[in-house]
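Tokens for chain A. Residues wanted.
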């Protein structure tokens, strides 16, 4: 196509598209507490759901009774739907003092309050690196202005991005287990 490719988009990809979907620069080194996350997520779902837990703690609800292979594939597909569309988050304070970060499909991150408080200085220092390229979130404080609750939500969402980029299943939790 040569000459016409410049006019019809056949040329090199713009720099911006090379990192699509955009991801945060921050990949927290703070280790999650998987057993505690599983315990809290089972509590939040009233022990009524099967779910898959990824390496960085993202929990994905799957239909009951799927084989392990089918549950893993379903959970990975759900992560992909969120990641490749846009991970809109909805952080919700829970009755036990923790936070549940929800997305537009049945995937969740549990932000453990005690762990967040242990690492609050790091969360405060890095929360803006938890925004993806060109992302603008509007809060009551203004554009990309976050109170501590918002900072912790962004920190929790970082683990979603880490799991979505490299979806390694850690556990499958059955409602009856």
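Reply:
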């Amino acid at each position: 196509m040569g000459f016409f490719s410049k006019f019809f988009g056949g040329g090199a990809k713009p720099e911006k598209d090379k990192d699509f979907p955009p991801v945060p620069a921050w990949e927290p080194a703070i280790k999650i507490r998987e057993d505690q996350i599983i315990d809290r997520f089972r509590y939040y779902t009233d022990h009524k759901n099967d779910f898959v837990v990824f390496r960085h703690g993202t929990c994905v609800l799957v239909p009951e009774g799927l084989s392990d292979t089918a549950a893993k594939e379903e959970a990975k597909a759900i992560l992909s739907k969120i990641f490749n569309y846009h991970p809109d988050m909805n952080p919700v304070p829970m009755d036990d003092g923790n936070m549940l970060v929800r997305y537009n499909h049945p995937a969740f991150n549990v932000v453990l309050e005690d762990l967040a408080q242990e690492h609050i200085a790091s969360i405060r220092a890095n929360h803006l690196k938890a925004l993806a390229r060109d992302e603008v979130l509007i809060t009551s404080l203004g554009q990309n202005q976050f109170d501590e609750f918002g900072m912790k939500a962004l920190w929790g969402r970082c683990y979603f991005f880490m799991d979505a980029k490299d979806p390694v299943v850690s556990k499958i939790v059955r409602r009856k287990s």
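The first helix runs from residue 34 to 44. Strands lie at 50-54, 59-62, 90-93, 99-102, 107-111, 138-139, 142-143, 169-173.
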